């Protein structure tokens, strides 16, 4: 297939682009490089452009006969979405709708969308299945849910097929150590824990120690970036016109912030300096997925289901690339 990948130079996008190419698909990456890294994708496949620029976007999408789009070009920080909601509504909703406009203009009928566990809000049942109520508790989750709703309406009215993949906590790096996580500023737990192990940061803060969880810290379901990327290929290849699919992506096991720190200490053989800090606004206590649906329907089989192996690949990336992509 010929695939148009918006945001393909970011963390999840770049790993997916690599697997798309390995699976024999044609890929064009459309990315404004605001957060992505040019060196994380093959240079010949990169078109630099912004979703806000509808003319450039539409021209890029008309340049080749694309079979499908993938959409990774969103802002993804829960905390920032609370303090800077405008950025999230503009980029994750308004600019993202441009992608749907361009798809219609270029007659591209399928899309795989990066959605999130944050669309569920505070769980009323665990593990979370796809039919769990979606009542997000932060602007990030709300903007992602709005786009899911737009996809459903576009599908009903115009017949587009979509798969919304609701990610739990993406982590880890390419097993060969050549692609990995490099956000600026970094806010995600696992890279920050490893930065503390490396001495790149003095310490990592534990956001909240009074949650209703076994050790008082937040519990999350960490999923390896390779397994996440693989799910996109499966969703793309299975999709038919008019499909409306949603899949959770996690491993079904929850780890607390303290457990992440302890596992990282074991993997790295180093002490992880840490301190206790107040809760971060917008964080539910526990988020754990049931991913049975994608296992059953698409045969998804995670290769790195355990936290330890996820952290091992992340550690290799950060050790070998202490400055990330260096750009
Ligand atoms: N977290 C933390 N200290 C940090 C960053 C994150 O304690 O410096 C916690 C955060 O409150 C959440 C979990 O780690 O409970 C995972 O956060 P992350 O930002 O990695 O992913 P999110 O769950 O927001 O997608």
Kindly describe this structure.
The protein is α/β, with parallel strands linked by helices and 327 residues long. The protein folds into two domains: 2-170 and 223-249, Rossmann fold (3-Layer(aba) Sandwich); 172-221 and 252-290 and 303-320, UDP-galactose 4-epimerase, domain 1, CATH 3.90.25. Helix content is 39%, strand content 18%. The chain is built from ten helices and 14 strands. The strands form four sheets. The protein has a seven-stranded parallel beta sheet, with helices on both faces. A three-stranded mixed beta sheet has the order 12-9-14. β5, α5 and β6 (161-167) form a beta-alpha-beta unit. The longest helix has 22 residues, at 85-106. The protein is globular, with a radius of gyration of 19 Å. It starts with a strand and ends in a 7-residue tail after the last helix. The model has no long low-confidence stretch (mean pLDDT 97). Bound molecules: uridine-5'-diphosphate. The site of uridine-5'-diphosphate (UDP) has 15 residues, from α6 and β8. Uridine-5'-diphosphate is lined by residues 78, 169, 187-189, 192, 204-207, 218, 220, 257, 280, 283.
């Amino acid at each position: 297939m010929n695939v148009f990948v918006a945001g393909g130079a970011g963390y999840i996008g770049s790993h997916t682009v690599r697997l798309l190419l390995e699976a024999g698909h044609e890929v064009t990456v459309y990315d404004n490089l605001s957060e992505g890294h040019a060196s994380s994708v093959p240079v010949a496949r990169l078109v630099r452009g912004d979703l806000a620029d509808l003319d450039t976007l539409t021209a890029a999408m008309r340049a080749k006969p694309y079979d499908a789009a993938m959409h990774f070009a969103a802002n993804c920080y829960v905390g920032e979405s609370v303090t800077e909601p405008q950025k999230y509504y503009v980029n994750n909703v308004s600019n993202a709708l441009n992608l749907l406009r361009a798809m219609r203009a270029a007659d591209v009928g399928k899309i795989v969308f990066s959605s999130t566990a944050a669309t569920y809000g505070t769980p009323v049942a665990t593990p979370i299945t796809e039919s769990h109520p979606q009542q997000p508790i932060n602007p990030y989750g709300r903007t992602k849910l709005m786009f899911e709703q737009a996809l459903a309406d576009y599908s009903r009215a115009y017949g587009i097929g979509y798969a919304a993949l609701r990610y739990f906590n993406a982590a880890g790096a390419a097993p060969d150590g050549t692609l990995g996580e490099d956000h600026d500023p970094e806010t995600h737990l696992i890279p920050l824990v490893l930065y503390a192990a490396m001495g790149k940061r003095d310490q990592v803060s534990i956001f909240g120690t009074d949650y209703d969880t076994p050790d008082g810290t937040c519990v999350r379901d960490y999923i390896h970036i390779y397994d996440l990327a693989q799910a996109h290929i499966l969703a793309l290849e299975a999709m038919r016109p008019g499909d409306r699919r949603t899949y959770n992506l996690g491993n079904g096991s929850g780890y607390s912030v303290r457990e992440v720190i302890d596992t990282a200490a074991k993997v790295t053989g180093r002490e992880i300096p840490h301190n206790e800090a107040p809760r971060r606004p917008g964080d539910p206590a526990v988020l754990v997925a049931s991913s049975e649906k994608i296992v059953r329907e698409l045969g998804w089989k995670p290769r790195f289901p355990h936290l330890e192996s996820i952290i091992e690949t992340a550690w290799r990336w950060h050790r070998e690339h202490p400055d990330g992509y260096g750009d």
